[in-house]
Specification:
This protein has eight helices and eight strands.
Length: 216
């Protein structure tokens, strides 16, 4: 598959999200990435259901929702009802990860599992064939604009090897500090989806930046 671009709306203009959503609708972006933070699992709070529902009302592209929250099982159906296409949970936040993945799929969503920067890939060995996405965090979750963690390159290789060895159909998503200087290498190593926040929305021409990332 050709790699996908999923701009992170958290890096957009929060006082005028409609403008940025309409820009993404017209751009070469494939998905819209939405970060949900609870102030407990990560030291920050972001969008709740009313904002997610509003994003969904105006978005014409699939919503790729990344939960940085504890006990995500409580809200799986709510996220489906709010317009989520792909729901990603953190392995570090799920006591019974397989049950959580099953619940996501039962609601008709694609199921993803995220790994914090120093959570080992081998934690996914028992679940890799049951999931649709692996989200590799290339910064510490909770805040945008952080510097890319170089160890991520090796982690992508490890994830690709695990997927190939297991016969899984999961795709690899990378999130954090992605820009035009590191995107090519990420794709070469096996990344299927690039989440870009600051590098898109802080650029002078976000539409052109998305197009350039897509064309790599």
């Amino acid at each position: 598959m050709s790699h996908l671009i999923a701009p992170s709306i958290l890096a957009g203009d929060l006082a005028n999200l409609i403008k940025d959503i309409e820009m993404l609708n017209k751009s070469d972006a494939d998905w819209i990435h939405v970060d949900i933070m609870d102030g407990v699992f990560v030291p920050n709070i972001s969008f709740g259901f009313p904002v997610l529902e509003a994003i969904n009302r105006y978005a014409s592209k699939p919503l790729d929702v990344h939960l940085m929250i504890i006990k995500p099982d409580r809200y799986i159906r709510r996220f489906k009802e709010a317009g989520t296409s792909n729901l990603i949970v953190h392995t570090e936040a799920c006591t019974h990860l397989h049950r959580t993945i099953q619940a996501i799929k039962q609601e008709g969503m694609q199921a993803g599992v995220a790994l914090n920067p120093y959570t080992a890939v081998n934690n996914l060995e028992e679940i890799i064939r049951d999931i649709d996405q692996v989200l590799i965090m290339s910064v510490n979750p909770g805040f945008g604009g952080q510097k890319f963690i170089e160890h991520t390159y090796q982690k992508i290789e490890n994830t690709r090897n695990l997927i190939d060895k297991s016969g899984s159909k999961a795709i690899i998503e990378v999130d954090g500090g992605i820009n035009l200087s590191n995107a090519v290498r990420l794709i070469e190593l096996g990344a299927d989806i690039l989440v870009a926040g600051s590098s898109v929305f802080e650029s002078s021409n976000p539409t052109k930046t998305i197009a350039t990332l897509k064309a790599l």
